[in-house]
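re: ur question from earlier - yeah i can do the single chain one, its not a big deal. heres the input i used so u can compare w yours
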Amino acid sequence: MDVRATVGGEMLNQYEEYGRPDDPVLRFVAKRRSPIDSSRVVVPEAWEACGARQALRTEGLAHSMEAPLIASGVMYGTISFARRPWSLAVFGEQDLASARIVGEELGLATERALRYEATVRRATALEHALDRMAQAVVVTDLDGQLLFQNRIARRDWDFEVVPDGVLRPGSIVACIGEGLAALRDSGRCVFTRSVHDGSRRAIVKTYRPSSRGDTAVTVVFPCAEETAAQRLPIWEVLTQREQEIAQLVSEGLTTKQIAARAFISENTVKQHLKRVFAKTDVSNRAELVQLIWTSGRPSG
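and the output i got, formated as tokens:
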């Protein structure tokens, strides 16, 4: 189907005014969700008398064909074609097949655009949420290419980026790099290290959200000053064995890994954790890790 003419605003205005409410082609497509032309949807007399035909007549057009534009199961509109009475005959089967293909391709393009728009909205919402976190969050690929850093990372840790997009070397960055190497080369999912950055001390946790992806997330937990940590009774209420189990939990180890490291059964690990939770007034591993990282490590 060749494009032979463009239509003016007058015809479009008239179609919106009285053509759309009385368009048998559009009604059929909206109901059946399949292409149709004016010669197949109603008898010639009914077509000539309808509002859509009157609107087309202002531009010398006689025949109409429409195909649905569907994306993700939702009909967003139609694509319309029209012919002059003297140019060609009414639309045929080949024309309908072509209209169907055009409608499907436009539907796929619309679906891709909608998915992209939704992805942008989700990414923006995620960035806003990460900016509200109290800890520094840095997102990179496994090679160290910076993808995102939140407000705390920019304000408190001043992660600099060299021209190729990689983080500038530093004590925290070196720790991140060590974690990325462990995730990339050793197949680990979590890597945790303590680091001193001048007068500050922090726990740096780098983890891989998906084993199939190449993205890594690093969270920097500032540690309390040693004097403040010593005043907190977190470790004093725990036995030496319970301290060991809590320490291994804070390093991101699973129950099975802790059992292997401590040479005890998994059930024993679970029993130790129940007592640790009760003594430190936390309800899960995440709360325990947060408590440990923000309160300081046991001395000795």
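Residues 1-5, 226-233 have pLDDT under 50 and may be disordered. not sure if urs matches, ping me
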